[in-house]
Amino acid sequence: MNTYKIMIPVLTVMMIATCAPPRDNQARLARMEAQREALTAQIEQLKAEIAQEGGEAPQEALAYVRGVEVQPALFRHFIQAQGTVESDNNILIPAQSNGVVKKIHVRQGDSVRRGQLLAELDAAILESGIAELEHGLELAATIFERQDRLWKKNIGSELEYLTAKNNKENLEKKLETLQEQHKLTKIFAPISGTVDGVLIKEGEMAAAGFGTIRIVQLSRLKLKAFLSENYISRIKKGDTVQVRIPVAAREMGLTVDAVSQVIDPNHRTFQIEIRIPAREKDLKPNMLSVITINDYSSPEALTVPQNVVQETGSGSFLFVVEEQDGGWIAHRRDVVPGVNYGDRLEINDGLSAGEFVVTFGFQNLADGQPVSIHRED
Questions:
Q1: Buried-exposed string 235-246: b where 16+ CB fall within 10 A, e elsewhere
Q2: Which of 47, 65, 251, 276 could form a disulfide with 361 if both were Cys (CB 3.0 to 4.6 A apart)?
Q3: Dihedral sign from CA coordinates of 150, 153, 157, 161
């Protein structure tokens, strides 16, 4: 009779669970786990009552599980990002005045020196004005020299002397201004390097402020990458990185040289820079790279396979197995997970070194359930 009294609420719970309308998955999971634990408790109570009545409780086959003993070990987390090779000295030289391109003195691939003339714009009008001023200045200088000699001998008026001097100085200033304007019609190399591109053609119009010739200095290359803002507090200058450049079949260990402290509001990222040694001669600007950064390390971490940690609406848990009365009993253990990388998850709280964590067969376990175990290496 007692058996029927116990089984009626059990069947009622199962019918309610079966007929309940679908709701939020987390809430349903929590209810089902509570129901499973209630059923387990009632089954154990029923077995005890059968034993008290002189009967023999049915022997159930032990649940088979596999697991591993957790021990402290070094745990590292890595970030992977895509970077681009850039040159610190990658300069697109603009025209400084408007004009028709008269002569281009270099071609793509040429090596150039700082200050070398690269191209000229048509400056015929300026050159004509300069020649006219130079002729006028020559006459003004002659007149001033004569007035100066006479003035020193107290011959002639002061007004004539000052007028000659003023004419000469005005023409000198005008000539200097035209010569500076004439310089703006010439395009010079601001650095030594290699001509990477010529964006103008002879006979075409060049506009002031627009690029004409690109020069790249390959001796000062760097890698630039953008990372999610989630990592800005975990990346710092001096961190070691592994860099792989697939197209050049190169791998190298480098360090982070600069970390931006400003978040891009459009992409929610921040920028890092990595200096490339000058010995890396085969790398070119705009090559793509894969950057691997070790952003977190724990020398004595307790880690488990990520899939053994189960989630509920109130937290996370896993199953451990403990020896009890000559057998093995599974116990549910609430844990606080930490950082994960690959298939490993760090456990920050709730687990101790030397405990046996169930890695296979944990899906259907209940707290306090006897099990048969197999130890994994």
A1: beeebebebbbe
A2: 65
A3: positive
